[in-house]
Amino acid sequence: MNQSSADAQTARRFEEPVFEIPIKPDFGLLGRRWTARILADIGFRKVNRFSQLIRANPGLTGRLLSKRLRELEAEGFIRRSAVRERSKVSVWLLSRKGKELLPVLMEIIVFGSKWNNTYRFQGRLPSLVQQGLSDARRDTNHTG
């Protein structure tokens, strides 16, 4: 193959339509500061009230938590549920979409543990994370 033929093939390759990956909008939100941590707290640790999320995440402000919860709700990862009918107290629960994200989130946590020396699970996952992952798998398998 001569040089001009190779150049023509390369040019054709770059003229082909780009394959769109259908995860870009979700990863934009998931990549924002505190988002994955909030989802992990709600999904794995069952920390699901506003005040609990603030206490569990030193450095997270109420303003930013409110913003992230609204974004996660708008994208369908979580839903708000009142504790009692006429109460202002509510909890945040994972939606089906959020539950289906937990195994992916867990893999990211395991990857981070493997490649970041600061966080190590030393051969096994913490029991709360194991239970949360088991619950998520069960819920996604039984949800229609």
Mind sketching the topology for me?
Layout: H1 3-15, H2 24-30, H3 35-45, H4 50-56, H5 62-74, E1 78-82, E2 90-94, H6 96-115, H7 127-142
Antiparallel strand pairs: 1-2
Helix pairs in contact: 3-6, 6-7
Give the CATH superfamily.
Answer: Winged helix-like DNA-binding domain superfamily/Winged helix DNA-binding domain
SSE series = HHHHHEEHH
Q: pLDDT average, as an integer?
A: 79
Counting helices, strands and paired strands, the structural category is: mainly alpha
Instruction: Note poorly predicted spans.
Output: none
Shape, per Cα inertia axes: elongated
The count of β-strands is 2
Radius of gyration: 21 Å
Quickly list its features:
60% helix; 7% strand; mainly alpha; two-stranded antiparallel sheet; elongated; 7 helices; 144 residues; Arc Repressor Mutant, subunit A
Descriptive notes:
By secondary structure, the chain is mainly alpha-helical. The chain has 7 helices and 2 strands, in the order αααααββαα. The protein has helices spanning 3-15, 24-30, 35-45, 50-56, 62-74, 96-115, 127-142, and strands at residues 78-82, 90-94. It has a two-stranded antiparallel ribbon with strand order 1-2. β1 (78-82) and β2 (90-94) form a beta hairpin. α3 crosses α6 and α6 (96-115) runs antiparallel to α7 (127-142).
How would you summarize this macromolecular structure in one to three sentences?
By secondary structure, this protein is mainly α.
